[in-house]
Amino acid sequence: MITLENVHKSFGSNAVLRGVNLSIPRGKSLVIIGGSGTGKSVALKCVLGLIRPDSGKITVDGQDVRTAEREAFLARFGMLFQGGALFDSMPVWQNVAFRLLRGSLKRPKSEARDIAIEKLRRVGLKPDVADKFPGELSGGMQKRVGLARAIAAEPEIIFFDEPTTGLDPIMSGVINDLIREIVVEMGATAMTITHDMTSVRAIADDVAMLHEGVIKWTGPVADMDRSGDPYLDQFIHGRATGPIEAVR
Amino acid sequence: MTKVFATIGQTVLALIASIGRVSIFIGQTLRHLVAPPFYIREFTTQLVQIGWLSLPVVGLTAFFTGGALALQIYAGGARFNAEAVVPSIVAIGMVRELGPVLGGLMVAARVASSIAAEIGTMKVTEQIDALVTLSTNPMKYLTLPRVLAATLAVPCLVAVGDAIGIFGGYLVGVNRLDFNAAAYLINTVNFLEAGDVLSGLVKGAAFGFIVATMGCYAGMNSGRGAQGVGRATKKAVVSSSVLILAANYILTEVFFSA
């Protein structure tokens, strides 16, 4: 269970998170939606400890993020970054097996390579991709490699940051299906941030709407269309008019 | 008038804050020296990148500098009938000053810029964040191997550069200035002391440390986008070059002041 209690974070005079309260039960897939600049990525990075909140408490299975032993804590997580964030100086298989080649999860190189190729196969990539460099791959293939890297060490919790941004609708559908399948198959807890409503419906068990630094609505994805919340309604239907001010 | 004092005050405060931030960065880097894991492969890769691949540019710089130095000392020495000092002054000048300083500046141009651009790009493309989520400390994985490799590689480059520079002076001395080859070599060896060479090597280590530290610091603190990385690269080269010249003066005072 991941919980955020009254989390605040400001950058200078810009208050991004203004008291976020959220909980994600173990094994559930929560998708956070909201406009650009509403603090979705900041909330996610606060959970990982990449950004330190100004106040509030974040716990993972009761363990405070601030006091947890970093390596052991982060070993529980996998993350798919928006742009893939693949290391362009190393071939694909070493990207996927990064965690398995160093640190506490280190194993022999050949075994790590075999696991990487298996994970690449799991995300629909052929073994010949393993020796290519990230720069040689298309955007969709890079996302798949990023996904393979996120699941390589079989984490309990997986974060997805805008997993379909920049992809065509068909590739977005493929990535959405893969995410859903993998999360269910691994029994992992998932937290996704996205603007893509197709992704939301494909990936989410629960949805949370973040606006102006607070959670405006949260509930099961099935209730999203009949929430009655004007913010959520405007967002999911993409209306230019409503309580969320759209800058023209 | 108040405005002038305010501007001076702000500049001084900003400078002190920068020194503080760099000092903390150095502390954070060096603390990883004693705690495993150690990324040996990253370190050896950087040794090759910073040391071996900088050899051509450092060697060429030293070669032409040695040659030009021989011509200058000959022309200047002729005013006092002191042309014979060319071999010894070329050797001392190269190993004490020009070898380490020019070598350091060439490494700053080549290595500080490349480190800052690489790490800066990694930062803006979230690769640094990705490292953290993969349970890898970026200071340990990226910064420490580069700083260590540069601190060890630059003295070696300086030693090779010294030899090439002296050889450049020798070629000009023998072929253009009609020095006897054997006499040139004997004068070079006789007037050169171990302390001269050692001081140059220590300077090289200090300059290597400065170059890699400033490259990593600028990269890690790079702004967003291409402009941010460009600024970080410029900052790395300028700050490491100025610091090399300042450190050279301080070290020269330490080694050679009476």
Structure at a glance:
The complex is a heterodimer of chains A (248) and B (258). Chain A has 248 residues and is of the alpha/beta class. Helix content of chain A is 32%, strand content 25%.
Structure report:
- The complex is a heterodimer of chains A (248) and B (258).
- Chain A has helices spanning 40-48, 70-74, 92-96, 109-122, 139-151, 169-186, 197-203, 230-237; strands at 2-11, 14-24, 29-33, 55-60, 63-64, 77-80, 157-161, 189-193, 206-211, 214-220.
- Chain A has a domain at 1-68 and 191-248: Rossmann fold (3-Layer(aba) Sandwich).
- Chain A has eight helices and ten strands.
- Chain B has 258 residues and is an all-alpha fold.
- Chain B has one domain (39-256).
- Chain B starts with a helix and ends with a helix.
- Classes of the chains: A alpha/beta (248), B mainly alpha (258).
- The A-B interface holds A 45, 48-50, 70-71, 74-75, 77-79, 81-83, 85-88, 98-99, 102-105, 149, 159 and B 37, 39, 122, 125-127, 129-130, 132-136.
Write the layout of secondary structure elements.
The complex is a heterodimer of chains A (248) and B (258).
Chain A: E1 2-11, E2 14-24, E3 29-33, H1 40-48, E4 55-60, E5 63-64, H2 70-74, E6 77-80, H3 92-96, H4 109-122, H5 139-151, E7 157-161, H6 169-186, E8 189-193, H7 197-203, E9 206-211, E10 214-220, H8 230-237
Parallel strand pairs in A: 3-8, 3-9, 6-7, 7-8
Antiparallel strand pairs in A: 1-2, 1-4, 4-5, 9-10
Helix pairs in contact in A: 4-5, 5-6, 6-7
Chain B: H1 2-30, H2 40-51, H3 55-78, H4 86-124, H5 127-133, H6 138-175, H7 181-191, H8 194-220, H9 225-256
Helix pairs in contact in B: 2-6, 3-4, 3-6, 4-6, 4-7, 4-8, 4-9, 6-7, 6-8, 8-9
